[in-house]
Structure prediction request, 170 residues.
Amino acid sequence: MKKKFLMASLILMMCSVSAYALPFIDIQLGAGYNGYFITNTDSDFNGYPLGFAAFGGVGYKFFPTLSVGAEYEFGQSWALDDLGSGQTLTLTEHLPKIYLKFNALNLLTVSALAGMDYQTPKADGNKGDSEAAFTMGGRVAFLFAYAQYLMVFNPDRVDSRVSIGAVFSK
Prediction:
């Protein structure tokens, strides 16, 4: 796991350096708050409201304003004192995605996102069963701030994933 993370970090760093030398390369890096909200009406548990996420992506610019690419996002979210039980629940997510990005004057970017959400829940350190779900949504960035909304299509429900934070895009 550590080797994969280091390799992904090295690749993103090399791509970001080469993006300034190659004008047709598109990069985006960001990090911030992440919340995962469950829409299951049969349960009192409504999700993991506290968390962080970080993403990085590399793409190809077809025009100065339009690019397509791939990105990887990591998210970690917590639910503290779940329903008064004293348990801390943790959700770890790995999200490989593709994106289509429209960039207006390097001030405003709008991205359509689609990919997979690999989720692993934990309760007080005890690892649960991992599951994969299709995800799609969008991201809007203005200058250095972004807001992202993703719908996560689990087999039995559709959940919401919300992120806000800082972004660097070229």
